[in-house]
Design goal:
The complex is a heterodimer of chains A (170) and B (154). Chain A is built from four helices and five strands; from the N terminus they run H-H-E-E-H-E-E-H-E. Chain A is α+β, with helices and mostly antiparallel strands and 170 residues long. In chain A, the strands form two sheets. A three-stranded mixed sheet of chain A has the order 3-4-5, with helices on both faces. A two-stranded antiparallel sheet of chain A has the order 1-2. In chain A, helix 4 (118-137) links the parallel strand 4 (103-111) and strand 5. The longest helix of chain A is centred in the first third of the chain and has 34 residues, at 20-53. With 154 residues, chain B is α+β, with helices and mostly antiparallel strands. Chain B is 35% helix and 29% strand. In chain B, strand 4 (76-80) and strand 5 form a beta hairpin. The chains are: A alpha+beta (170), B alpha+beta (154). The A-B interface holds A 49, 52-54, 60, 62, 64-73, 75-77, 79-80, 90-94, 106, 108, 135-138, 146, 148, 150, 167, 170 and B 87-88, 94, 96-101, 104-105, 108-109, 112, 125-135, 145-154. Strand 2 (67-70) of chain A pairs parallel with strand 6 (123-134) of chain B.
């Protein structure tokens, strides 16, 4: 508060010859400007956060009304693929808009490389996901699937893996 | 004004219109008002009758509380257009393994048919929101899958 009053005094000194009313007016204008700036910054942070969180689902237009498939439903379907890929544990699924109506599905997973090559897993998992999206959900707007290995599973003995290996597959 | 129209006007006054009234028909015999709860019940009946639909999405507890205060499930949204036609949105949990577009289409047709036949109101669209998939034969999942922002890829 002291700093604010000091700042206002400093600003007043820059405007010599202004009366009390004008000082009050300029102070109010400055205050409103600062509030608007603050709101803009908060809005930008909110938008960035929303963008990082991705879309909430996929909308399919139909004659009798729209069909909206929530991200949770997609996640559940993708997680059902886990038993087909031993050593895989799907952590997160996120949807992002790419260009126009094109979407990208991001899958973050933990993979035990002792179960096979990660590149092979990526290739096979992508194929299965695309098949699931089109076959079960009727979604053909997802044009790419990005697989991200978030970490290796912790070993039961010895130190856990901390380093994130290079990500491949996109 | 003849006697029958007078009676109808009196009856109309006796049954005040609320926001929840979707359709109102006045005749010399009286006023018929269809509450949105009635439509919600029709919609639920039609949607749950479709093979592949397990239940409405949302919390049963919250829906129960909402029902106590006289409103319908939050999983059903009924919007009345200016011309009196309806747009309906229904949030559903479907059975895992079904073809979602086919089930959703069946739900749309069933709801439209049910509402139009039972209530005589034109439905212009039924938006189906597939909130979750469930496998009724699978054991209860241990902990939910975390959904949220994934760190930037690449």
């Amino acid at each position: 508060m002291n700093r604010l009053s000091e700042l206002l005094k400093h600003l007043e000194s820059l405007l010599p010859g202004v009366n009390e009313f004008e000082r009050g007016f300029y102070s109010a204008v400055l205050l409103i400007g600062a509030v608007i700036l603050l709101l803009l910054v908060l809005y930008c942070i909110y938008k960035l956060h929303r963008r990082a969180a991705g879309l909430d689902g996929v909308l399919l237009k139909r004659d009798d009304g729209d069909i909206f498939i929530a991200r949770a439903a997609l996640t559940q379907a993708i997680r059902h693929l886990e038993p087909s890929f031993p050593g895989t544990e799907i952590q997160k699924v996120v949807l992002r808009r790419k260009r126009g109506a094109e979407l990208e599905l991001g899958v973050a997973l933990i993979y035990d490389e002792s179960c096979g090559s990660f590149d092979m897993l990526t290739k096979n998992l992508k194929e299965r996901i695309f098949r699931e999206l089109v076959g079960t959900f009727g979604i053909d707007t997802v044009k790419s699937v990005a697989i991200k290995l978030v970490r290796l599973p912790e070993k039961t003995h010895g130190e856990p893996h901390n380093a994130v290996p290079p990500v491949s597959g996109f | 004004m003849n006697q029958s129209s007078k009676n109808a006007a009196e009856l109309e006054k006796a049954v005040p219109e609320t926001d929840a009234t979707i359709k109102e028909t006045t005749s010399e015999l009286g006023v018929i008002k269809i509450h949105d709860n009635v439509l919600a019940a029709l919609i639920i009946h039609a949607a749950l009758g479709v093979d592949g639909v397990l239940r409405l999405a949302g919390s049963a507890l919250v829906d129960g509380l909402v029902g106590i205060v006289g409103s319908h499930s939050r999983s059903i949204e009924i919007n009345k257009n200016e011309d009196g036609k309806l747009t309906i949105a229904v949030k559903l949990v479907l059975r895992f393994g079904v073809s979602i577009p086919e089930v959703a289409l069946a739900v749309q047709r069933a709801v439209i048919e049910q509402v139009e036949q039972s209530a005589g109101i034109t439905v212009v669209g039924v938006n189906v929101i597939v909130q979750q998939l469930e496998d009724p034969d699978a054991p209860a999942a241990e902990g939910g899958l975390e959904l949220g922002a994934m760190p930037p890829i690449g």
